[in-house]
From TrEMBL:
This is AAA+ ATPase domain-containing protein. Residues 35-177 form the AAA+ ATPase domain. Keywords: ATP-binding, Nucleotide-binding, Transport. GO terms for cellular component: plasma membrane. The keyword DNA-binding does not apply. The keyword S-adenosyl-L-methionine does not apply. One of its GO terms (molecular function) is ATP binding. It comes from the Bacteria. Transmembrane segments: none annotated. InterPro entries: AAA+_ATPase (IPR003593), ABC_AA/LPS_Transport (IPR051120), ABC_transporter-like_ATP-bd (IPR003439), P-loop_NTPase (IPR027417).
Amino acid sequence: MSAPILALDGLAKEYRGLLAREASFTLSVDRRFDGPEIVGVMGPNGAGKTTLFEMIAGSNAPSVGRVLIAGQDIHQVRPRERDRLAIHYHQSYQVRRFRRTRPAFLQERARSAYPLVHLFDEPQFNTQDGYIGFMLDFFRRLKDEGHLVFVCLHPTAPFQLDILNEICDRFLFVSGGQVRAYDDFATVVSAPDIRLYLGDVAPVMPGQRSEMIL
């Protein structure tokens, strides 16, 4: 049996204040992704979505647990080669630097020449409408070529939910330090706390009457 494309093995990140003894925020996740698919990721600002992506891409070290990509722990790979396993496309193109814990020569070489996991963080940001179709085709092509694709959106307009509904096979909702999984769009937008998070952009569900403006 081959290794899953991505395994988040008992992964957690704990943040503490400079003087605080107790954790101010902890994000925990334990999940695996066996094959190529497109996964939609949603959650409130500050919920830990970017931290999750950074841990998967190897730019933010977990407090405990491992990130295994095709069986290789990305945090044991030389930093300059980690994008051969997972690559994080940040909407603001920010480059964050993290302190190295070990010299590169003591770390492993990446066992892949090209990224297997692609993490898109708010990819619609500053994207003209005419290019969104090309962007979605790119996501589908990556999946067809055997890659695992994550698309993180913070929906503020119905068309962004339409994007997730059209291209995503499964969904993750990040909130309160937990990562919950959903198998389809109807289920994720039916959860009461997720509808509260979506607010006015939450889709009308079957049997639900939309409010009429008089």
